[in-house]
Amino acid sequence: MLRTLAASSSTSFASPLVPSSSFSFSKPLFSLSKPFLSLSKPSSFPRHTRRFSLYKAPMNILNKLGFGSKSSDPSAMNSSIPQGPDDDVPAPGQQFAQFGAGCFWGVELAFQRVSGVTKTEVGYTQGMMHNPTYEDVCAGTTGHNEVVRVQYDPKACSYESLLDALWARHDPTTLNRQGNDVGTQYRSGIYFYTPEQENAARESLEKQQKLLNRKIVTEVLPAKKFYRAEEYHQQYLEKGGRMGSKQSAAKGCNDPIRCYG
Question: Where is the segment annotated Disordered (predicted)?
Answer without folding.
Answer: 1-20, 70-89
